Every structure is written in structure tokens, then in C-alpha cells.
Amino acid sequence: MTAGTSWPLLALDLLGVFVFGLSGGLVAVRKGFDVLAVLMLAAAAGLGGGILRDVLIGDVPPVGVSDWRLLAAASAAGLLTFFFHPGVSRIERAILLLDAAGLGLFAIAGTLKALDLGTTALTAVIVGVLTGVGGGVLRDLLAGETPRLFAEREWYATPALLGATVYALAWSADLANPVTTWGCVVLITVLRILGMARGWQVPAAR
Predict the structure, then answer these.
(1) Which residues make Cβ contacts (< 8 Å) with residue 175, sequence separation at least 6?
(2) Angstrom distances, CA of residue 179 to CA of 160, 183, 200
(3) Under a CB-based contact definition with an 8 Å cutoff, are residues 44 and 142 in contact?
(4) Cα separation of 78 and 81, whole Å?
(5) Any idea what DSSP says for residue 86?
(6) Are 95 and 23 in contact (CB under 8 A)?
(7) Which of 116, 99, 90 shows the shortest CA–CA distance to 23?
(8) What is the pTM of this model?
(9) Cα separation of 154 and 149, whole Å?
């Protein structure tokens, strides 16, 4: 992240990298991977969405490979899950909750950064959604699992789409502020958790 990056975006990025990194590390632990594989999966989950975002909006080199703070956050998440992970029976629920939080953090971070660079609201929403789902998809693919984005028509991209749209509309109306930013993160996270708890599904073709 460059020196000119806003603090809200830096905070969203660091938290998103750490939270998604924890989810990636926990997946690796559940699979019985060694410490290097745990670190790699944590990095892929934590940094993948941000790298995709920066490539899409032309902000290169991506901060995921150029900012030591983000790399350190991903590494810390991997080491934390390797040495202090909970019992195996608790890991699945922890992964789902962390995944929901990471989705909210990254979707709004992607939307905010795109808007900061002067894109249209529509472009910012698309970038935000792809940023939100990118890390989780990469994590699942590397772990040999079907990405949650495509599994059983779950509410995964939908919460990110709704939250990013609300934030882009607030930005367009000059209502974007820290309360709006974190409120949209919470909105996405809660919608994702509710979707899992209540079995909400996206309609499929019949």
C-alpha cells in the first residue's frame, strides 16, 4: 500500500488480510498440511482478493506483493492458526465465521479503493464483489475443495453485491464516512451469516 493510501482503506485491507488469512490457515490445518503449506494457504486467502482488485483497476504492482504490512498480516495469521488452532471439531465453524467477516471487509475495501481512484459506481461494485470472493475462491481451490461461491447456491456473492451497492450509493450521495464504511462491512457479514444459518439460496435455472 502506498504512502497516500487512506487510513480507512489500510485498516480494511489489514483486517481483511488477517481474517481471510486465518480462514486459509484453518483450512490447511484441517487438511493436515505442514507449516509451509499453512503459510501459503493463509497468504493465498488473505492476499488473493486484494491482488485481483489491484490488477483489475490497474494499481500495480499489487499491494499484496509489495506492502510488507499486508505480507506480515498474512504470515501472522498463518503462524497463529498453525500453533494455536482450536480443536478439529471447532475448526469448520470458525472458518465459516472468519470467511463471512473477510467477505465483508474485502468487498468494502475493493469498492472503496475503486471509488478512490475515480471509477464509476457500477465498476466499483463489480470490483468490490470480486475482491470479496477472490481470496475465498483461491483458498478453496488450493485446498482441493469446491469454492463456496459455487457450492449449493449459497448466499456468498449476494451479500457482497448488496453491501458494495449500498456503499457505492452512499459515496455517490456524499454520505460515505467511517460509520457508513463499517456499517456496510457489518451488513455483508451479517447477511452472509444469516444466509448460512437459514439456508438462503440463490435461484437456479430449472
Answers:
(1) none
(2) 18, 6, 27
(3) yes
(4) 5
(5) -
(6) yes
(7) 99
(8) 0.85
(9) 7
Q: Is the peptide bond before 61 cis (omega within 30 degrees of 0)?
A: yes
Cell of 36: 509451509
Which residue would you say has higher pLDDT here, 3 or 199?
A: 199
- The amino acid occupying position 62 is P
What tens digit of pLDDT does each residue of 116-164 get?
A: 999 999 999 999 999 999 998 999 999 998 887 887 678 889 999 999 9
Distance of alpha carbon 151 from alpha carbon 67, whole angstroms = 33
In the numeric block, which cell numbers belong to residue 38? 499453512
- Model confidence over 159-170: pLDDT tens digits? 999 999 999 999
Coil/strand/helix, residue 201:
strand
- In the predicted model, is pLDDT for residue 49 greater than 70? yes
Classify 130 as helix, strand or coil.
helix
HEC-encoded secondary structure of 104-121: HHHHHHHHHHHHHCCCCH
Q: Which helix (H) or strand (E) holds 186?
A: helix 178-198
